[in-house]
Amino acid sequence: MNASAAQAAEQAFIGLGANLGDRGQSLAQAVQAIARLPGTQLAGLSSLYASAPVDASGPDFLNAVAAVQTTLAPLDLLHALQAIELQAGRERPYRNAPRTLDLDVLLHGDLQLNTPELTLPHPRLWERAFVLLPLAELAPALVTPAQLAAVAQQRIALQQAPQAWCPGMLQAAR
Question: Which of 8, 42, 79, 88 is the most exposed place for a label (fewest CB within 10 A)?
Fold first, then answer.
């Protein structure tokens, strides 16, 4: 048995976003790809939200959060998510450019990490309604009313329940 197989699974939360192309299809395909990652099981999926870009330009985003149980180390999870982004046509011409797919490791257990490649918790997690609202659906104890109030002025709208935008994935998670 290798070291990663022997390690206990951690709960991680992944932010999903897209504002180019068929956004809903891109996010649904990303969830399917995440569920197929080695040592990773989909544990929950938020509703789908539409939100205005924050610190960026371009069309509105569709956003959601996925909860997973994973034995992948945080950097391994990040690299796997970046590979999924590349398969979806993600380009990085400049910071906060419009994107076909954006996948962020928001939390990985209780781990606090600050490296040039990855910071956990995600450094802007508490500043973004498009992350906090879906995260609060999945893990209400992680998001306080004060945190939600701090982002209440950001434009965001509930679009679809998880069963509607990513059918079949929640049943597969159980």
Answer: 8
Q: Is 102 a catalytic residue?
A: yes
pLDDT tens readout for residues 82-97: 999 988 877 665 566 5
Q: Between β-strands 113-114 and 10-18, what pairing exists: parallel, antiparallel or unpaired?
A: unpaired
Gap between the Cα atoms of 58 and 171, Å rounded: 34
Nearest-5° angle of CA 139, CA 115, CA 14? 25
Active site residue 90: yes
Bridge partners of residue 63, in order along the sequence: 17, 49
Per-residue confidence (pLDDT) for residue 174, from 0 to 100: 47
What b/e string do you get for 65-90 counting C-beta neighbours within 10 Å, with b at 16 or more?
Answer: bbbbbbbbbbebbbebbeebbeebeb
Instruction: For CA atoms 112, 117, 123, 124, give the dihedral sign.
Output: negative
**Residue in 55, 76, 104, 128 annotated catalytic:** 104
Contacts of 141 (CB under 8 A, 6+ apart): none
Annotated catalytic residue: which of 99, 110, 124, 128?
A: 99
